[in-house]
Amino acid sequence: MGRKRIHPLTPEQQELADLKQENHQLEMENAVLKKLKALVDQRTEKNKRQ
Fold first, then answer.
1. Average pLDDT, consecutive stretches of 10 residues, N- to C-terminus, the chain (50 residues)
2. Separation CA 25–CA 29 (nearest Å)
3. In 1-50, where does DSSP find H-type helix?
4. What is the pLDDT of residue 30?
5. Which terminus of the chain is more solvent-facing, meaning fewer CB atoms within 10 Å of its CB: N or C?
6. Calculated CA dihedral for residues 25, 9, 3, 30, nearest 10 degrees
């Protein structure tokens, strides 16, 4: 999955790459949690109507 680099990354470049990866992971987790909340809210609303 990772790309092979001819030149190694500097510590700053590696830190930036790590932070970008972490940010992407957190954004995906946030999206999943938002969808879960929407489903729970939808089910709760449906149960209130019954």
1. 79 98 98 98 90
2. 6
3. 11-49
4. 98
5. N
6. 10
Q: What is the DSSP letter of 9?
A: P
**pLDDT at 6 (0 to 100):** 85
> What pLDDT is stored for residue 1 in this prediction?
54
Let me know: does 17 contact 24? Beta carbons within 8 Å: no
Q: Which two tokens stand for residue 37?
A: 């909340």
3-state SS assignment for residue 22: helix
Residue appearing with tokens 């954004």: 27
Q: What is the 8-class DSSP label of residue 1? A: -
Residues ≥6 apart with Cβ < 8 Å to 4: none
Tell me which residue of 39, 21, 43 sits closest to 13, measured CA to CA: 21
